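ARCHIVE CARD
Drawer: 12
Card no.: 0347
Subject: one protein chain, sequence and derived structure
Cross-reference: see card 0346
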Amino acid sequence: MSYNVLIVDDSAVMRRMVRRALAVCDTPLGKIIEASDGEQALQILADAWIDLVLTDINMPHMSGYTMLETMQQSDELGAIATIVVTSEKSAESIERARSVGAKGYLIKPFRADELRTMVENALESVG
């Protein structure tokens, strides 16, 4: 089974870095789709089968927190594995992300092996 992934970040450079890190994961990947903010991500989630969302927190139009909160209001979207990938390091930010359904929290900059572990754990938790 391969997993479809949605990368949500307002930085095209960061989306590319996450995509490259995913390429070295042992997890079989299907489609990798990108969105530049939470609004665009929710539109994609309405139309595409996604198994894993990797999202930043601070983005224009709709933050990662708001996107995750919206996802949790839907049984279908709330079941999708989510990992926050952000530069926010505070305990409050980590707790808030978990409270809105994030299965993992990865602080930028990160190593590919850290992402691999997070992805494996997040997919196991919903699989």
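Annotation on reverse: Residues 3-111 form a domain with the Rossmann fold fold (CATH 3.40.50.2300). The CA atoms of residues 68 and 98 lie 10 Å apart.
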